[in-house]
Amino acid sequence: MLHPELISMENEVFRVYLGWTAVLVIKIFAMSILTGLTRFATATFANPEDLLSPKLKVKFDDPNVERVRRAHRNDLENIVPFLIIGLLYTLTNPSAFLAINLFRAVGIARIVHTLVYAVVVIPQPARALSFFVAAGATVYMAFQVMVTAAF
Fold it and tell me: Which residues cross the membrane (predicted)?
């Protein structure tokens, strides 16, 4: 049975979910800005109309731009599912302590993932660890939603 009070500002789990959702949505937008800044810094543009000088040519293979683009794509592949499953998990009326820490883990891990992948490149296993923390938490929440739904 759905309890409307679960989706209210009175529910601490829902409030924390909203906060981390906002952080992660801003992070996705920030990746677009970082891609643009990296394109300008390396003079790497994918469209002729974006070229700053007639001396420049369209270029698709700058390793710095591609690294930021891959990090951005990874965010889209991982944050969007979290946004959905996190809300559904909130509706299962989970333990506040566990839910809040899962939301924090996903948010912090996704930020760390970008930092070690696209900002200050750090060798593995830094990126893998941050990826698996967020993915593991999201999969755990999905499993709990399935168990609670008892389909």
Answer: 17-37, 79-96, 102-122, 129-150
Q: What letter represents residue 77's amino acid?
A: E
pTM of the predicted model as reported, rounded to 2 decimal places:
0.89
The helix (H) or strand (E) run that includes residue 53 is: none
pLDDT, average across residues 123-144: 97
The tokens 């750090």 sit on which residue?
122
DSSP character at residue 35: H
User: Among positive and negative, which fits the CA dihedral 4, 105, 70, 36?
Assistant: positive
The residue type found at 22 is: A
27 CB burial (10 A radius; 0-12, 13-18, 19+)? middle
Residue type, 17: Y
Ordered structural domains, the chain, with CATH: 4-32+61-149 (1.20.120.550)
Structure tokens at 116: 């070690």
State how far the Cα of 69 lies from the Cα of 76, in Å rounded to an integer: 11
Residue tagged 């300008």 (tokens): 40
For residues 83 and 40, the answer to whether their CB atoms sit within 8 Å is: no
pLDDT digits (tens, 9 = 90+) for 40-62: 898 888 888 878 777 778 888 89
